[in-house]
Amino acid sequence: MSAPFDIRNVKSTFIFNPKSGHNARNPYLLERTRAFISRHRLNAELQPTSHPQHATQLARAAVTAGAEAVISIGGDGTLNEVARGLLDSPCPLGLIPCGSGNGLGRHLGIPKPEPFAYDALLQGKMRSIDCGTVNGHPFFNVAGLGFDAEISARFNQLTRRGLVAYLQTTMRMWRNYQPSRSLIHHADGCLASTAFIIAIANSDQYGNNCYIAPGARVDDGQLNLTVLERVNWLNALPLTYRLFRGSIGKSTVVHRLAGKNFRIERESALPFHTDGEVHAATKTIEIAVHPHALKVITPRGP
Questions:
Q1: Fewest CB within 10 A of the end CB: N or C in the chain?
Q2: Separation of alpha carbons 26 and 10, rounded Å
Q3: Residue 63: closest CA among 90, 43, 94
C-alpha cells in the first residue's frame, strides 16, 4: 500500500551529515538543499550532524516537535541513524542518498543526490518497509558477518571512499582472512558452514548495483540470507561478475535462505555490521525482521 506524498504540504526536517563522503567532497549539496527549501517555501528546518548517533537524536527530536517528514542527506550510515529515530512512528523518511554505495536508495529508485532525488519529495509516494535487527541493532539495507564485517570496519577508517577504494581494501585483506565455523539455524533446519561471508539483506544489494540478494524486497516481511562458502583465486572473478550481474545464487559456493528469524552460532566471537556500522559480537547472533516498521518516501513511478 502507498499514498501520494508532497513535502510542500507538511512540516519537515532535513538532517545533513557534513562528514559523509559525498557531502564532504561536494559542499554545494548543502546550498542546494537550502535553495530547495526556499524555492518551494517549505515549512522545514535544516539540521547538520556533529557526531556519531547525532542523526538519531535529531530525528527523534523532530518527531517530538511535530515533524511530518524527516529527510536524510548522507550515506547508508546516516540513513540508518535517521531511520532508527523514526521507527514505528507515523513520520516518514525521505532520502537524498550521498554515500559511496547508496544501497537502499538504489533499491528504492533514488540512486544519487541529483535533482531527481529532491523532486521525489514533491511528487512521491509514501510506503512502508521492513526493518531487520541483529542482536537488537536495527538495519534497513544489509547487515553482515565474516569478511563482510571486517571490510566494513576497515572501510570506515578510509578518508577516501567509493567503489574503487572498496575493491582495493577488499583485495588487501583477502589474503590473510580466516573464516570462522558457523551453525545457521533457520525455519527449515540448520546449515553448517565455514562461511567467508554471511550477508543478511533487507534490500537486494550492497550498493553500486552489487546484488548480494537478487530478488529481495524491502516490504515482503522477511530477510534474505546469503552465505558465500569460500572465495579463492579461482572463483573470485566469477563471483564478482555474478554479484554485479544479479546471478550470485547460481554459484555452487553460495547458499540462499529467506525467513523471518535466524540464529547463528559461531566458534568465536567476531564483529558484525548493520548498514556498515560495526559492532562487537557474542558467539550467538539473533536475527529478526520487523515488518513495515518504517515509512519511506519514494518516487511515484508509473
A1: C
A2: 28
A3: 90
Whether 141 and 124 map to the same domain: the answer is no
**Is the same domain home to 279 and 184?**
yes
Residue 15 in grid coordinates: 538532517
DSSP labels for 194-205? Answer: EESEEEEESSS-
CA 35 to chain centre: 28
pTM of the model: 0.89
- Binned at pLDDT 50, 70 and 90, residue 149 comes out as confident
Supply 99's cell numbers.
554515500
CA-based nearest residue to 147, from 192, 183, 178: 178
Q: What domain count does the chain have? A: 2
Mean pLDDT across 222-246: 92
Q: Is the CB of residue 297 less than 8 Å from the CB of residue 92?
A: yes
Tell me the one-letter amino acid at 118: Y
Q: Which pLDDT belongs to residue 30?
A: 87
Does 154 share its domain with 254?
Answer: yes
Give residue-wise pLDDT tens across range 251-266: 999 999 999 999 999 9
Does residue 141 contact residue 76 with C-beta atoms inside 8 Å? yes
> What are 139's three cell numbers?
538495519
Grid look-up 504540504 returns 9
Q: Do 205 and 253 share a structural domain?
A: yes
Percentage above 90 pLDDT, the chain: 67
| Pick from 300, 232, 298: nearest CA to 94 | 298
